[in-house]
Design brief:
33% helix; Leucine-rich Repeat Variant; 10 strands; 9 helices; alpha+beta; Jelly Rolls
Length: 335
């Protein structure tokens, strides 16, 4: 992780903690505003806090939680019992605080348990820690792989995106700062429509495609399903939500003195990662709002002129229909 990303992630964790603390304090203040239920504190009795942490009274539980956190290291043993509380707020706060300071193997155990919690909010907290924390977490990717199969599709989507190692900064050729002065001189020398038919397709529920190099030109996709693009995969009997892969080839003419070769997707529902001739060329991954957005990748450094080129597209769909549901084309640009 780079420094900029670490700062962003730390801020997210800080904000989560601030919100949870405010929620806990609000519940406590409601209790303490009632004179009949007010329990004055002149000192901290660990055994009493442990009993209150298990109280049926939510205000007592959350006040005990706050005071255990205030005590610090002396209260951590009792705070750990909150991991088994029926109160999801207690579990969530305990995970945040204990995972922050725990030894690596203990941190792993806490998070492994948390990603199987019955509460969506607790599982989401665990995933956020796995993604955003700069602390050492043994087998981090293993836990994210488990989270990527979460029954809550939003949680699964977050984990899926973070278990994928490929990324490239994408700036369409016509939007580059160094090209702006030449914008009026850019010419579309040739357009090539990508074939709608002849695509090979498979789902990837276990997220193993990139580790098995399904993007390699020499990969044998004989046993994959035949499919078309320009339609959702549901139109071909694929009732599926998650990661899937498309493979095909396309021909290019003899070499042209091109400034860029743009691969233009009119829409993919909802995210896509693309390889040409085994070389990673970029992604379209802006979340669920990306399902109907056009995106452009400059593939000039990956293509082979005057012959067949191989293309692989990894698609992720979080909900509903998915796939490369609009046409794809190539535009060869000259200046």
């Amino acid at each position: 992780m780079n420094k900029k990303m670490n700062i962003k992630l730390q801020w997210k964790l800080f904000l989560m903690w601030a919100i949870l603390t405010a929620f806990t304090s609000h519940a406590i203040s409601r209790e303490e505003s009632n004179p009949e239920r007010r329990l004055p504190r002149t000192s901290f009795d660990i055994s009493q806090l442990e009993r209150e942490l298990k109280s049926e009274n939510q205000f007592k539980r959350r006040r005990a939680l706050r005071e255990l956190i205030f005590i610090g290291a002396d209260g951590e043993t009792v705070l750990a019992t909150a991991l088994d509380s029926e109160d999801s707020v207690l579990r969530r706060v305990a995970i945040l605080k204990l995972a922050e300071k725990a030894p690596p193997e203990h941190r792993y155990a806490i998070l492994k348990k948390a990603i199987s919690d019955k509460s969506d909010s607790v599982r989401r907290t665990a995933v956020d820690i796995l993604i955003y924390s700069s602390a050492e977490i043994p087998r981090r990717n293993e836990l994210l792989q488990i989270a990527s199969r979460d029954k809550n599709k939003s949680i699964a989507a977050i984990a899926i995106r973070k278990t994928f190692p490929f990324y490239k900064e994408v700036i369409p050729f016509r939007e580059r700062v160094d090209i702006m002065d030449h914008a009026e001189s850019i010419k579309i020398e040739k357009k090539i429509e990508m074939p709608r038919k002849g695509w090979k397709f498979t789902t990837d529920p276990n997220l193993v495609g990139h580790t098995k190099k399904w993007f390699a030109p020499e990969f044998n996709d004989t046993n994959w399903k035949e499919i078309e693009i320009g339609k959702h995969w549901d139109n071909f009997g694929v009732k599926y939500v998650g990661i899937a892969w498309y493979r095909n080839t396309f021909a290019l003419p003899a070499q042209i003195n091109a400034a860029a070769v743009e691969l233009i997707f009119e829409a993919v529902d909802e995210a896509a990662w693309v390889w040409v001739n085994g070389q990673y060329v970029g992604q379209h991954d802006i979340g669920s709002r990306g399902w109907d957005r056009q995106f452009v990748l400059d593939i000039i450094d990956a293509i082979k002129w005057g012959t067949e080129n191989q293309i692989t597209i990894r698609v992720f769909n979080e909900i509903g229909a998915g796939g490369i549901w609009k046409p794809v084309r190539i535009e060869i640009l000259t200046i």
